[in-house]
Amino acid sequence: MKFLLVFDFDHTIIDENSDTWIVKCAPERKLPNGLRNSYQPGHWTEYMGRVFVYLGDNGVKEDEMKRTMTTIPFTAGMIDLLGFIGENKELFDCIIVSDSNTVFIDWILKAADLHKVFDEVFTNPAAFSSTGYLTVQHFHAHHCAKCPKNLCKRKVLKEFLDKQLERGVSYTQVVYIGDGGNDLCPVMFLKKNDVAMPRQGYTLEKKISQLAQSLSPVQCSVLVWSSAIDIMSYLKLLIKE
Questions:
Q1: Number of H helices and number of E strands within the chain?
Q2: CA nearest to 177, candidates 125, 217, 139, 229
């Protein structure tokens, strides 16, 4: 009896968007209009690449970025929830699937001593170049028309579950915790026994209820959360069963 918990990162584990938070390092804490307006839908990773070049050009160094990123607040109740999961690791496998990047997630989780809670993190690979600039790449290539060019979370989830099955690990239930539009694709992949937990008032919750109204609801159960304590209450019930 093992459960898989799948977490988004931005606006789910942390209460902000890590990619927009880094702008606090920019001169006057803002980006020039030309750069801001250069974003094209579905191409966020390329846009962030340009943001990192701008920060590097303005002499923003790794240690300053790290200091800034580790001030991001966690979502209400999240530290308690992750502590609870950490104490019950024999029951829960726990992964992150995020459109952030490896450097940001690593910094934030390690600063809070929470990295051991997660078995794997699937996100865009990032690294500092020899000249001290942060660079970011696409997580993978995929053919899903619904998702941004660099990441289809359904593909990540499906491949992870397949790989676990090959190792002889199958899950009683998958619990997917997220907030954004790009979390809908993996939620639609969930089975009847699984649970989607969209954050209250965010895009994912709205998209799931639109599907229900158009009579093509998701297969899985849906439980809305506003604090991570709501998620913890559900997990406590789950392991009591």
A1: 10, 8
A2: 229
Is 10 noted as a catalytic residue in this protein? yes
How far are the Cα atoms of 147, 167, 240 from residue 1, in angstroms, in the given order?
32, 15, 12
Q: How many CB atoms lie within 10 A of CB 205?
A: 20
**Residue 162 marked as a ligand binder:** no
Residue 46: DSSP 8-state: H
Domains by residue range for the chain, with CATH? 3-15+74-126+147-239 (3.40.50.1000)
Q: Is 19 annotated as a binding residue?
A: yes
The pTM assigned to this predicted structure is 0.96
Contacts for 116 with CB less than 8 Å, ≥ 6 apart? 86
Per the annotation, the verdict on 63 as an active-site residue is no
- Tens digits of residue pLDDT in 97-120: 999 999 999 999 999 999 999 999
**Is 8 marked as binding a ligand?**
yes
C-alpha 208 chain-centroid distance: 18
- CA dihedral for 11, 14, 19, 25, sign (positive or negative): positive
Residue 103: C-alpha distances to residues 35, 137, 169 (Å): 22, 12, 29
pLDDT band at 214; cut points 50, 70, 90: confident
